[in-house]
Design a protein that fits this description.
The structure is a single chain. By secondary structure, the chain is of the alpha+beta class. The protein has a domain of 50 residues. The protein starts with 14 loop residues before the first strand and ends with a strand. The relative contact order is 0.06. The mean pLDDT is 82.
Amino acid sequence: MAAGAFARFRPDLDYTLSTDNIIGWKQQANGTPAAGAVWPDPGTLFFVNYDLAAQTGAAPLLSDRTPGSVTRLLAESFAREFAVLSRQLEAVYRAGFLDTATGRDLDQLVAILGLNRRDRTYATGTVVFAACHAGRRRYFHRERHQVVHQ
């Protein structure tokens, strides 16, 4: 941003690019912007894109990044597929550790160690339903039930 608005900075007018690819803002001897040069507002971020210069007789570069363009469609498609693949690889990574593996992956992981996971079971015990009235406890029902927790 420059002067509070989005701006495109111009090479050789606003900045120079050294042989080490370092951006240097055009300035006067006293450190102020050179005549006609525009600098980004202090504290704002700016982005740099490097496009190769087209060679004589070469096919034009795919540089149209506007919504709906072929270049943007291909880039967004690639980015989405990359995100899906990254999530799948993260799941594969997590499946390799006892602390993070679940389900079938955990079964296969403990099988390597010669162990078997227990099957699920149901808890049984005595359940007491009670209520308190004015500081006294009254028992309503005491009976043996099968308690199922899923």
